[in-house]
Amino acid sequence: MKQHLRVIIVGGGLSGLTLAYLLSKEGISATILEASSRLGGRIQTLKGKNDTPLELGATWFSDIHQKLISILEELGLKKYPQYARGKSLFQTKSFEPPQEFYIPETAYPSYRIVGGTARLIDALRDRINPQQIHLDTRVVSVNDKGDEVMVETQNGMEFRAHNVVLCLPPQLVGSRIRFSPELPDDVSKLLPTVQTWMAGSIKFVLEYARPFWREKGYSGMLYSHSGIITEMYDHTNFEENKFGFTGFLNGGSSSYGKETRKQLVLKQLNELLGKESSHPLIYSEKVWVDEFILDGNQVVSRPHQNNGHPTLQRNYLNGKLYFSGTESVPEYSGYMEGAIISAKKACHEILEDK
Ligand SMILES: Cc1cc2nc3c(=O)[nH]c(=O)nc-3n(C[C@H](O)[C@H](O)[C@H](O)COP(=O)(O)OP(=O)(O)OC[C@H]3O[C@@H](n4cnc5c(N)ncnc54)[C@H](O)[C@@H]3O)c2cc1C
């Protein structure tokens, strides 16, 4: 019976794709409606000139992220520890030399996915019927039609299903999707106040021909209170034949243009790691404020505010509408682990309700 169930998943990020994969294992083919022209949402891996996987979005996880680790294993993907050997730097003041420190080898490691985080997105996509994935398809309304729900998209398409699962930040649900009948007042009031993890952050990547910092005994890890780079890490691939850095820029630098940010990044690295840093193969960056993450909503600065709120645990439209996505769950919300947990929870609830 459940094989005849039709499910619409709004959002083709990690939670939406994981949910589609889990449902497909139960013989249920779900339709994914994704507003942008790519899958992955807050997971976005660029390839450098030398094909180095460069993460503009999610990158790290650890042993506590057991659901993520088990899905990686199930999909045949491998993890490897973040490189941290050698001198790391901490810049407290612009007029003092940086402090040097060492990360103990025995500390709990952070991992990365071999080949880049997008491998996870690709592996999930490859296990979903491609005809069920619709890109450039922004959902604008969700309408209760009795036994079914009718979903309308910005490009004038209509989809019908027994269940709709919202796999996107609650802030975007609140500002972009109309509901008929309207969602209860407490839900509508809550949505704009749910923090969207990492919205407003600026991530940069650099690719280099050689790991010159490793050759000088540096780990590539940098924390700074005084430069445009606030955090930076070695971004060498698993095979150790492609090199680079990734990290975060000071949020205030969003008021500069990309070229100014690039020059400030290279100046800071030149001073700290030497002149070789001035000639990257690639500098790229992403200011995470676009219509697919923030869309004009306010950045909620309190970390994880209202993430996993009880209101997001309930279903609506007489059991036909569910909230999912990393911000919807109380455990590990904001992180990839939270996205997987939310997908498992939605899958379980959909199957249980039938
Ligand atoms: C810079 C950055 C660094 C990060 N680093 C880490 C990290 O190191 N470790 C970690 O665990 N996590 C990290 N994260 C968080 C991680 O990326 C997220 O937890 C996870 O990817 C969220 O997945 P999701 O599917 O819940 O949401 P999203 O990835 O946001 O997916 C939502 C999807 O919905 C789509 N969408 C939006 N509106 C509509 C609409 N109206 N109709 C249809 N589709 C719509 C969007 O385009 C998007 O594809 C980071 C995030 C960022 C931005």
Task: Provide structural commentary.
- The chain has a seven-stranded mixed β-sheet.
- It is an alpha/beta fold and 354 residues long.
- It is elongated.
- The chain has helices at 14-25, 66-74, 118-126, 170-176, 185-190, 212-215, 258-273, 310-313, 336-353; strands spanning 7-10, 30-33, 45-47, 53-55, 79-81, 87-91, 99-101, 111-113, 133-134, 139-145, 148-153, 158-161, 163-166, 178-180, 202-208, 218-224, 229-234, 243-249, 282-287, 321-323.
- Helix 1 (14-25) packs parallel to helix 9 (336-353) and helix 2 (66-74) crosses helix 9 (336-353).
- The termini are close together.
- The protein folds into two domains: 1-43 and 117-196 and 291-354, FAD/NAD(P)-binding domain, CATH 3.50.50.60; 45-116 and 201-287, Polyamine Oxidase, Chain A, domain 2.
- The model has no long low-confidence stretch (mean pLDDT 96).
- Bound molecules: flavin-adenine dinucleotide.
- Flavin-adenine dinucleotide binds at residues 10-16, 33-36, 41-43, 57-61, 138-139, 167-169, 172, 176-177, 197-198, 201, 203, 288, 292-293, 325-326, 334-336, 338-339.
Number of helices: 9
Whole-number tally of structural domains = 2
The quaternary organization reads as single chain
Helix proportion range: 10-25%
Determine the mean pLDDT: 96
Report the sheet with the most strands, covering strand number, pairing sense and barrel closure: 7 strands, mixed
Q: Low-confidence stretches at least 5 residues in length (pLDDT < 50)?
A: none
Bound molecules: flavin-adenine dinucleotide
CATH topology tier name of the largest domain? FAD/NAD(P)-binding domain
Count of individual beta strands:
20
Computed structural class: alpha/beta
- Widest β-sheet, arrangement of strands: 7-6-16-17-18-15-19
Outline: elongated
State the end-to-end CA separation. Answer: 9 Å
How big a fraction of the residues is strand?
25-35%
